[in-house]
Amino acid sequence: MEFRFDCVFYYVRNLERSIRFYRDVLGFRLVSRDAVARFAVDSVAFELVPAHSAEQLPGTGNARLCLRVADVAATLRELQSQAVSTREAQEKGDGVLGVFEDPDGNELCLWQSKTTPH
Q: Are 67 and 27 in contact (CB under 8 A)?
């Protein structure tokens, strides 16, 4: 068997609302749109997929999209200024972890490494 990375995706209730969030609030680059929305985040493909059942909505899995940032606290403040639901930053070993949610309640993480330069 040979595996190759394809993408990370989240199910969403409202595709248009979610596209606006990821494109306009987070600044992700939308690369294509058909039945799903595809974004490029560095070299990672990230997709939004319309949910067709309650089992597909947030809280049914354990994957998280984690974004590396230079300053978690500053990033959380910027997100809060755009009415994004966030949690308080936490010290976690060699870094700082921040958490926020998209409009569908999908949890995203922010990571600030104390040892790795950005």
A: no
